[in-house]
Write a structure and sequence with these properties.
about 375 residues, Alpha-Beta Plaits, 6-stranded antiparallel barrel, 4-stranded antiparallel sheet, 7 helices, 22 strands, about 40% strand
């Protein structure tokens, strides 16, 4: 008994020492890693195009009449007459082409595009995207895409079986789009800089403003930053400062980040992600499962020789019930390591841990946000 109490006292001293050094474990990040510039956001582009050169895996013109219409219109623009009979070749597929126009992109630079089938094509492997214009939300054309399509999935089909891995009706064209028009806004025309936190948090926003103001007081003689809310930090441009050089200096400042305690659970895959700040109040947990196994082993009964009996099937059923678990454990999570160790000591699988965490949250003992995906 004395040895048991000695162990408890040592654990208490260890917990107090961990609490004392916990602030030293605080994570620090550069501003460029936790925030983005509002004026430097991406812009989405979209277009409609055709993929040619498929090996009989394209759209059927009956099920996808728009593919035939698009192909005829393309050939007419090239000066080729399309009058005559219909084509049954399935080497063409209609696709939607999407891309993200990066900030400050200049004409002549290249970006990646993604193609996705619109019709009943079974695979885009081996195809080539024909010249497709990509438009923004304002209807203006900002890029033109063309090139060979790369598909990661594959499909093998035989007379009685089919094997498919990945998605064969979507692919990418690396560097397939050339930017033809730049965005109308200019970075150096901005009056101020607006930083947007990727993970909104009031504490982190205030710390960013304080770090930037400390730099500005030493460099320009006064504060320039203000935290508007949990996501935005507005930085006014000093008169004598160059905006590009100012942003280059600010984005490398180191800030101590803070995030709310969360437990993310994906019940479909059995994935559990527990944040480092998650705490659990003392709670008793009991977990047990009842497994019932039913086995059918029918017996074939044959009639005696030279008799007029018939072969019969006699059913035979074996039922076994097995109960596992049932232990009661006390979980108290002052830190992440203790919480995980307490859950593993119960001896349950991830699906059981998910049920336990949901129960702890319902009991009010989980001091964190429970996110179910």
């Amino acid at each position: 008994m004395k040895f048991f109490f000695r162990i408890l006292s040592l654990l208490a001293v260890l917990a107090m020492s961990l609490a004392d050094v916990a602030p030293a474990w605080a994570l620090t990040s550069r501003i460029k890693d936790i925030a983005s510039l509002q004026a430097g956001r991406d812009n989405q582009l979209i277009g409609y195009g055709l993929i040619v050169g498929l090996q009989g895996t394209g759209d059927g013109f009956r099920a996808s009449p728009f593919t035939e219409q698009s192909m005829r219109a393309m050939l007419q623009n090239l000066g080729i007459s399309t009058q005559g009979g219909q084509s049954n070749a399935k080497n063409t597929a209609a696709v939607m082409v999407t891309a993200n126009l990066p900030p400050f992109a200049s004409p002549g630079s290249r970006i990646d595009v993604t193609v996705s089938s619109l019709g009943d094509a079974t695979s885009l492997r081996g195809g080539t995207l024909v010249m497709t214009s990509l438009s923004g939300a304002d209807g203006q054309i900002y890029a033109v895409a063309q090139g060979a399509v790369i598909v990661s999935g594959f499909q093998a089909q035989g007379a009685a079986a089919t094997v498919t891995e990945g998605v064969t009706t979507a692919g990418r064209v690396p560097g397939g789009a050339i930017i033809e028009r730049e965005l109308p806004s200019r970075f150096k025309d901005s009056v101020n800089l607006v930083l947007q936190l990727r993970n909104p948090d009031f504490s982190t926003a205030i710390r960013i403003a304080d770090i930037v103001n400390g730099y500005a007081k030493a460099r320009f003689g006064g504060p320039v930053a203000e935290a508007k809310d949990s996501q935005e930090v507005v930085i006014e441009k000093p008169r004598e400062a160059d905006l590009t050089r100012l942003m280059a200096d600010l984005e490398n400042l180191v800030v101590e980040t803070d995030t709310p305690a969360k437990v993310v659970i994906n019940e479909r895959t059995g994935t559990i992600v527990i944040g480092s700040d998650v705490r659990v109040s003392p709670v008793a947990v009991s977990y047990g499962t009842l497994t019932v196994q039913v086995t059918e082993t029918p017996q074939i009964i044959q009639p005696e020789p030279f008799s007029r009996g018939e072969t019969a099937v006699q059913p035979q059923t074996d039922i076994q019930a097995q109960k596992t678990g049932g232990r009661v454990a006390i979980i108290d999570g002052p830190d992440l390591r203790t919480l995980v160790a307490g859950l593993n000591n119960i001896g349950v699988k991830p699906d059981g841990i998910i049920a336990i965490l949901q129960g702890i949250k319902s009991a009010g003992a989980l001091q964190a946000e429970l996110v179910l995906q």
